[in-house]
Amino acid sequence: MNNKRKWIFRGCTLLAILLIAVLMFIVGRGHTVYIDNKTLEYNGESYGALQKSEVWVGGERLSKLGKRDRTMTTVIGNSFEMKLINTVNKGDEPTETTVKISLPYGWDGILVNIPGYLANLPQEAWMTEFIIEPTTEEAAGEEEATEDEIPMGDF
Amino acid sequence: MSTKQQNAGKTALNFLRNNTVPLMFILICAVCIPISGFSPSYLLNEIITRLGRNAFLILSLLIPIMAGMGLNFGMTLGAMAGEMALIFVSDWQIWGIPGVVLAMIISVPFSVILGLICGKILNMAKGREMITSYIISFFINGIYQLIVLYLMGSIIPIAHGSIKLPRGYGIRNTVSLLNMRQCIDNLLAIRIGGVKIPALTLLIIALMCLLIVWFRRTKLGQDMRAVGQDMQVARDAGINVERTRIISIVISTVLAGFGMILYLQNIGNLSTYSAHSQVGMFCIAALLVGGASVDRASIGNVFLGVTLFHLMFIVAPQAGAKITGDSMIGEYFRVFVSYGVITLALIMYEMKKRRQKASIGEQLALAQKEEEQHE
Amino acid sequence: MKEKMASFVASFGLPRLIITGFLLALFILAPIVGVDLPMQITNVINRFSWNAILVLAMVPMVHSGCGLNFGLPLGIISGLLGATLSLEFGFTGPLSFIMAVVISTPFALVLGMGYGALLNRIKGGEMMIATYVGFSSVSFMCMMWLLLPYHKADMVWGLAGKGLRTTISLEGYYDKVLANFLQINIGKVSIPVGALLLFALLAFAMWAFLHTKTGTAMTAVGSNATFAKAAGIKVDKIRMLSVVMSTWLAAIGILVYEQGFGFIQLYMAPFYMALPAVSAILIGGASVNKATIMNVILGTFLFQGIVTMTPTVMNSVIHTDMSEVIRVIASNGMILYALTRRSEVTR
């Protein structure tokens, strides 16, 4: 009887740890979000870039985007919120918008196009996956480490 | 009156003998710190950072010493487990504190397997645990390289080319952990003057210390201490000696895995092929500097050791440069002192063992003589 | 028949069998995958000649019960001091080699005696402490190589003019001096007879020594120290002698290695040099308290064979150089195997 209790207890702890692991998996997913202020072509229509767009993330100003500018930020988790202070054309009054997006789990880099978003287009129009080309200027000769370490170095 | 003086002299001598290493280090630091010219606040900041970084790792060494297994050079195995977990977690793009937690959870199965292997081999080499665990760390390092350099990326799927070698498989020499860098340190950081105190990290370390103190009082802890004192007596008392020894190594390996993850989250960068061996060496040196010996180590030793050892480590290159005009001298000096300290501690331990044996023999002979006289 | 096989495997040792089989497979594979076999055989023999004396240095201490000499770096340092001083004093050519041997000897004797005295105080924990004595002395010498007043242009850093370089070329000094002495070429295989002769000489001397009265006393001390003491043998003195012999052989060994390799390697190079020698003698059939000359020859050959053949053959087969990793696993696995066998009580 006591043995059974021990195993049940162990099973529950294991289950709890696994659940925490899965939770961490979801909650900790990191993405890099790139925010564009570029003219978007979609379905034949053209959605023009704004004169100026200030991007605020987490209460601090991330960047001021002119036409054709791009900025980026890192996000942990599956939702992203930013505040935009937009000036559509020169001389207009700036308008504030809050943008709340849920980020697809599988994408590492996510590109968000502001004009497309503001035009209320379907999501696939203004949110695309951003893939970085692996650069080929890697350090050459990064072969195996020999066992003759020089046991110095900061740590 | 003269016996009192003799006794006082003996206690002083004993104190010196038992604490040679920390005293030596205090001397070295006292000499080198003023020469190096670092400001006290800089040194304080550095020491607190290094404390947060290394203390958990060094705490993992306490359990095997309690169980009589000596200095666990096999903590490198736990470090490797932690590193493998971090490689996976960073490939899966899990960042920040969730990443650290996930890495710790994943490192456990790796640590347990490695700890079981290590414990089993050590049981086959009773009496030579330290040199065996030392060679085990090299052996498993080879297997680690086999996995990380050849199997990862080819048989074990790694999604991101950025952490793979140019040839397409195998992990690069350095893996950036920028996205979880100092996430635990920064969460509850307190900044006083020019000093940053990573409160959460220190809290975790304090919890670990409490855990160890509690563990010593549990049945398993008591069993380990019994095994550490005398294996035969423990066996006669019904304790499963082999199993207890293996458990002590497994626990130490798992803790070393966690400690390595904490260490790496502070540095923010993983030297895939060299981080673990450096860490193993210097943690053992630090523990010994704190006054621990092969068969006795306390939590106080851990903290004293980290402080003294890392003080020396920071200060030596500069002091060496100022004295001889060549900074390499200081770097080699601190390597020499690290190894020298371990050598000294090992020698003193062996000599103490022989002295104890000799004194037991003398006492036995004395007792026998008295018996004979009474007949 | 089956029992014979089983007992052969048990006495030869399964890991040893695996390693020998592996090496044989490599030799057979080599011509098939297009590796230049004569050149590889030359390489193996050459590397054998470089390393054999270092492995031989293990024998005295194993016999006297001091275990495997993980403190080999101490002897290596004596050899390095001899080599650098010989060059500093201006000797060149074959004479520089002889002078290096002559100069290393007093260093080896002094260091060996100190090391031996230390080991006599810590009977039982020799191997671990030897490892760290080795490490400490190598790191200490790292500082010394920078500070000692060497002036020879070939050896010091160009810019500062002081402090020895990390590697010093032996061209013009004793590079290949033994190898080229009496070199025999059979077909495309060239055999460095000079170096092999020196090894044979020292090995024979060791074998002869072990059969003298002192030599047998040494073996007696190793198998049962209390018995030997009761028989009137001065245990501490014999142990000291074995340590000095081992240190001196290590000094000669590194000099022979340097003449084959062509360079003097300072600073951190001697750091891990004990491990290949230890695992070589273990592969050859020795254990922590038993080692014969045959173990040395067989072990060095097998070890160097694997080190030489694995990269070339593997590269041709799977186009990857896994040799480093295989060497680490094989050599350390061998040492583990030896450490985990129960100490045999020799007859």
Overview of the structural elements:
The complex is a heterotrimer of chains A (155), B (375) and C (347). With 155 residues, chain A is of the alpha+beta class. Chain A is built from 3 helices and 10 strands; from the N terminus they run αβββββββββααβ. A 4-stranded mixed β-sheet of chain A has the order 6-1-9-10. Mean pLDDT of chain A is 78; it is low at 136-155. Chain B is 76% helix and 4% strand. Chain B has a two-stranded antiparallel sheet with strand order 1-4. Chain B has a two-stranded antiparallel sheet with strand order 2-3. Chain C has helices spanning 2-12, 14-32, 37-56, 58-63, 72-88, 93-121, 126-147, 177-180, 193-210, 213-223, 225-230, 235-261, 274-283, 293-318, 323-340; strands at residues 167-169, 183-186, 189-192, 263-265. In chain C, helix 3 packs across helix 13, helix 5 (72-88) crosses helix 12 (235-261) and helix 10 packs across helix 12. In chain C, the strands form 2 sheets. Chain C has a two-stranded antiparallel sheet with strand order 1-4. Chains in contact: A-B, A-C, B-C. The B-C interface holds B 121, 124-125, 128, 130-132, 134-136, 138-139, 141-143, 145-146, 149-150, 324, 326, 328-329, 332-333, 335-336, 339-340, 342-343, 346-347, 349-351, 353-354 and C 70, 118, 121-125, 127-129, 131-133, 135-136, 139-140, 142-143, 146-147, 163, 275, 320, 322, 324-325, 328-329, 332-333, 335-336, 339-340.
